[in-house]
């Protein structure tokens, strides 16, 4: 062997060893029955980097780490030297006294089946749906088929899909031959006659029919009449599952790359769905088929039918088409109210980057419920009035007068095109990424249109809606939509982050970088934390922990004696050290409280900037 060849061989071996040594694999389990813990956070404080355990309790961390912190809901946090961990397994002590109300929540078998990204889901990667559906308004009946293309990630002979159990499976075809299947509530396990080869692209044709069940907040699939007595049929399935009306892999983790929808409706009606209309076919049966194409990845709950006596008008903003579909009798009101769309789009693109789905366009579609963030097909039912007109309480949504300056549904639901549709959480448990950020988008719009003072006033109006009963991070893999605090407390948390950064120019560039970096991708809370740590060069770990993983707010304990003010944090998180602005002696200053007492001399007229920082304050 020549020396050069030998040296190359040694170099390859060393490189392979280094590559092998890049990561340390750990498994995190609970003292409660040795159950694996999904969603535990392993934190490297030196590098300011967080890692999250997967559904098997496993996590892969960089090999150079010496000291880690491990945190998990309902468990006592740990700080460990890597060298002290044996067999790459860490047992965390379960504590029944932590988050008592949250631990008492029960999750049904159906939700566990839906929420669990099981081996028969994880063994394949979706490529496309080609959904055909015929809707019979008179019988309130649907029938159709979905051609599902997917790539096998491992050799296997079974996959898992979802369809509500009240709907009939007519047949499931593979190469024109019927497959066998088993049903367990809304879960469908499909069997193949032999192992499908890893890496191969496969297609099945799933035929079904039945009477869709109205369920959930907006009914999910509803047959109604408009004000003129004409059929009006709509879908809105977030929280209930799109499997209510069509067969699919009903998970946020895996989105198809593109989709075709072929919707057949009585010819006197029209269907408006996601993406762009590429064909209209008049059928012999008195039905018309509308064919819609979505060119971007799309989550299942965003897939939408809107069937009625729709008329169209539209406009453009650069190369972005803005199309509006409303009932004919409401056309004049819509033309006036929808003038808010263009300035909103200008604001959102200014702060969050280009509209994520330009290929598919933007639509605003009238619906018989308040609204939903269906991708490229946002639905609207706010009565063509400003504020939030849900029929429950005042339209002045945050109660401070600002809400009446704009149409809440247009502004909020469109914000989801960035937060929810473009940036999508892997699991319901991290839904604050959708709702907290989208609610924050409302205040971004207010600030851009009406000024900073109105935005802060608007944001703080949400305080009355916060319950602080459950943490914003929910339990993973059980299809559980967390507390409504993900909206209200979520936006107040983000506003707090802005004022911790204390540099608006850097903040807004950072927000735009965040939405651009994660454009059309999935993320966990640890990904948000890692981005903020890196971009703003600050350790936000303790702050994220307190606001997201606990229900209680941090409390600033204040003691005044003469001109001396003493203060410290009271928090669930040890060594909590969030900075905060206060007013003392007529000027604003920044203090850096910890869990230990600190003091200010000459602290006359001491007050906390609690409009900028969402905290509790207690004066002793």
Sheet/helix structural class: alpha+beta
User: Can you tell me the CATH class of one domain?
Assistant: Mainly Beta
Strand order of the largest sheet: 12-11-15-9-8-18-21-20
Distance between the termini: 81 Å
Total of DSSP H or I helical runs spanning 4+ residues: 13
Which CATH-level-2 architecture of one domain?
A: Sandwich
Largest sheet: 8 strands, mixed
- The CATH topology label of one domain is Immunoglobulin-like
Shape designation: globular
Radius of gyration: 27 Å
Strand content: 25-35%
What is the average per-residue confidence, as pLDDT, rounded to a whole number? Answer: 95
Question: What descriptive keywords fit this protein?
Answer:
620 residues, Immunoglobulin-like, 5-stranded mixed beta sheet, 13 helices, alpha+beta, 23% helix
């Amino acid at each position: 062997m020549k020396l050069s060849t030998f040296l190359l061989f040694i170099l390859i071996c060393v490189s392979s060893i280094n590559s092998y040594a890049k990561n340390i694999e750990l498994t995190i389990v609970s003292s409660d029955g040795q159950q694996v813990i999904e969603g535990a956070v392993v934190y490297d404080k030196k590098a300011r980097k967080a890692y999250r355990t997967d559904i098997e309790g496993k996590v892969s961390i960089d090999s150079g780490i010496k000291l880690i912190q491990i945190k998990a809901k309902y468990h006592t946090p740990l700080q460990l030297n890597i060298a002290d961990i044996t067999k790459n397994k860490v047992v965390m002590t379960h504590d029944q006294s932590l988050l008592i109300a949250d631990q008492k929540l029960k999750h049904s078998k159906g939700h566990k089946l839906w929420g669990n990204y099981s081996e028969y889901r994880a063994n394949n990667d979706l490529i496309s749906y080609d959904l055909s559906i015929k809707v019979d308004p008179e019988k309130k009946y649907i029938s159709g088929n979905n051609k599902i293309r997917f790539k096998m990630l491992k050799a296997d002979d079974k996959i898992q899909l979802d369809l509500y159990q009240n709907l009939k499976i007519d047949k499931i075809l593979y190469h024109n031959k019927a497959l066998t299947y088993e049903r367990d509530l809304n879960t469908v396990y499909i069997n193949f006659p032999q192992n499908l080869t890893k890496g191969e692209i496969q297609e099945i044709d799933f035929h079904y029919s039945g009477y869709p069940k109205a369920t959930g907040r907006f009914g999910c699939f509803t047959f109604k009449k408009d004000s003129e007595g004409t059929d009006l049929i709509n879908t809105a399935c977030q929280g209930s599952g799109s499997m209510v009306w069509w067969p699919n892999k009903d998970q946020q983790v895996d989105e198809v790359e593109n989709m075709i929808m072929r919707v057949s409706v009585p010819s006197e009606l029209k269907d408006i769905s996601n993406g762009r209309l590429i064909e209209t076919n008049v059928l012999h049966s008195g039905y018309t088929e509308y064919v819609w194409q979505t060119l971007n990845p799309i989550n299942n709950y965003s897939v939408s039918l809107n069937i009625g006596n729709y008329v169209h008008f539209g406009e453009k903003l650069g190369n972005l088409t803005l199309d509006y579909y409303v009932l004919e009798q409401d056309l004049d009101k819509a033309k006036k109210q929808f003038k808010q769309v263009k300035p909103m789009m200008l604001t959102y693109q200014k702060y969050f980057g280009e509209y994520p789905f330009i290929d598919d366009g933007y639509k605003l579609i009238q619906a018989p419920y308040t609204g939903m963030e269906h991708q490229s097909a946002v639905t609207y039912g706010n009565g063509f009035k400003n504020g939030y007109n849900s029929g429950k309480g005042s339209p002045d949504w945050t109660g401070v007068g600002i809400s009446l300056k704009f149409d809440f549904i247009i502004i909020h639901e469109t914000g989801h095109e960035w937060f929810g549709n473009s940036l999508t959480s892997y699991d319901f448990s991290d839904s604050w990424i959708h709702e907290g950020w989208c609610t924050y988008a409302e205040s971004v719009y207010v600030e851009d249109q009406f000024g900073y003072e109105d935005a802060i006033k608007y944001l703080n109006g949400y305080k009355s809606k916060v319950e602080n009963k459950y943490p914003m991070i929910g339990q993973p893999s059980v299809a559980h939509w967390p507390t409504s605090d993900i909206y209200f407390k979520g936006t107040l948390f983000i506003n707090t982050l802005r004022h911790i950064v204390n540099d608006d120019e850097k903040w807004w560039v950072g927000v735009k970088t965040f939405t651009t970096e994660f454009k059309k991708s999935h993320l966990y809370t640890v990904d948000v934390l890692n981005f903020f740590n890196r971009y703003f060069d600050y350790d936000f770990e303790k702050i994220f922990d307190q606001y997201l993983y606990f229900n209680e707010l941090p409390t600033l304990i204040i003691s005044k004696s003469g001109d001396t003010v003493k203060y410290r944090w009271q928090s669930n998180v040890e060594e909590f050290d969030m900075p905060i602005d206060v007013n003392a002696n007529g000027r604003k200053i920044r203090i850096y409280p910890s869990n230990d007492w600190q003091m200010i001399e000459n602290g006359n007229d001491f007050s906390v900037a609690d409009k900028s920082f969402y905290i509790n304050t207690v004066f002793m």
